[in-house]
Amino acid sequence: MKPTRTTGSVIALWVFGVLGVFVAVLPLLAGPYAQAIGRSVLTYLILAVSWDMLIRSGQLSFGIAGFFGLGSYAAVMAGKWLGMAPILTLLLAGVVVALVAAAVGSVVLRLRGMYFAITTLALAEIFRIIIRNWNNFTGGPNGALLSGVIFGGNAAATYTLMLVLGVLAIAASEWFEHGKMHFALTAIRNNEVVAKSSGINIYRYLLIAFVITSAMQGVVGASYAQQFGFVTPESSFHMNYTLIPLALALFGGMYTSWGPVVGAVILGVLGEYLKLYIPYGHLIVYGLIIVLVLLLMPKGIVGLVRARMREVSHD
Amino acid sequence: MSKTLRLQIILGGCVVVAAVLIFLWKPTVLIYGVQRAGLYAAIALPMALILGVVHIVNLAHGELMMVAAYITYYLSRSLGVDPFVAMLITAPVMFGVGILIYKLTISHAVKGPELNQLILTFGVAMVLSQLVNLLTTSQTRKISLDYVTASATIGETSFGTYNFLFVGLAAAVLIGLQLFLKRTRLGQAATAVGQNPNGAEIIGIDVQRTYTIVVAIAAGLMGIIGTFFLTKFSIFPAVGGAYTMKSFCLVAMAGIGNLPMIVVSSLILAVAESSIQAIPGGSGWAPLVFFALIILVIMTRSFRRSS
Q: Which residues of A lie closer than 8 Å to B, measured between beta carbons?
């Protein structure tokens, strides 16, 4: 049951929507540097949204970096060995990562909670070791190069690609938020026993959610690798790709589509400046954000704004 | 009960047979495996204490060891003393760090869902490793000591003996923790809090104080273990992460709350790793062993639950 929309929230929705379109289109007018920042923001935005989609079921995945890196490698390997068109490698990476996530998830989702969280935390390291050892296929510790980058390095085209992927991710998240999926996942998060006795097949829903969100992370990894044209075990599975999306989603507000989006836009832009001022160790900021947000504003920015709006409408 | 006993006997038998076979194949594999098991058990025991006894998940476990190793490194460099002398300062400092981390962060998530503890301590782990990265750069550091190269020869095999120190360390930590839990009032209080925090509060146990001290003891132990680690291995800001995961693997294998079984699970992990390292071309794959074991544990647990 949804509360009826007040005039205030309709106005807010319109303002937010127009602002969103404006922010999304702006980099296309502003030139390559803005587009580069926009691409990076969108990369983390999709990762943050996909992570949030799963946590709505109460399952905490630390596997983002693992699936991101796996997607990167799948795309570059497909380009290198099969000569596949860059845009098709994104699809292939999604399928490869979905299969791997299904295999991992079908075991690990049987014991949930901390077992799931810690096992996924190990994934990036595990994939990295396998890829580093599988020398003759993956290029081992040296990584692999593509002969060219996607769209010949055209910044506007790659930005548009990321924008399309971003919109798709938000659409997927909204689908999770409003469909049958939403009720199943929320019920599982609130109380597994009750959910089970209401006839929800917990295992199946969690597995579907895990596979879809992991595949999204794999596609982002693939598009990232195609933009830069190379992969290495150290850079492709970097802890960044887990740490930053978590911080963005928490900062914006967990358990909603728009929380991670807001978090990604605000922190993503600030993060670009941060990188300029503290090139080494700027990641500490994201660690601090995670700790501080959980302790001081567990509902994030979106939660704060919502509470404020409710106050205003009650006055 | 008899069924689990039989299972344990079968399992124990398999381990002994495997050990004998490995010893006949390559004695050094078993020797290095036992030494490594000592290291793993020592690191995992403090996690077993806070996860098994008071049910706090700490993903910053390995990072505490890393921080301790760095503190000892800089103390022993700047004061010009042996790391084991510097440890006398490191351990109390880490005890204080434990209190600080508990009071500032974990205490706010102790009653909430497990999820918040996991995210929070993940954040703490990241802050600790990035802080060290920011202060000292990611360069690897090592202290070279002449006594760590000690070796012995039995028959035709010669091997390093210094690492047997880790076996002694693990034994000392295990015995110390068992005495603490069984013989001291605080240890008994910790067990009571772990079983039922509300009940413990009703009978007059200061629950928050108990949590604080248990976390601080674990951190203080990491001060000692981090120093031992430093005497033999290179350190860098990300060195702790793998040990958090291996410790969790060992605690999960032993059964959460079962401290003595950590010794057995450490032996299995360590001997398996050193066996794989002994196979030509296998050394790169050894870091996968703990993951395979976690998967195995999850499969058997979920099988047992559903049957």
A: 55, 58, 60, 62, 107-108, 110-111, 113-115, 117-119, 121-122, 125-126, 129-130, 132-133, 239, 243, 246, 250, 278, 280-281, 283-284, 286-291, 294-295, 298
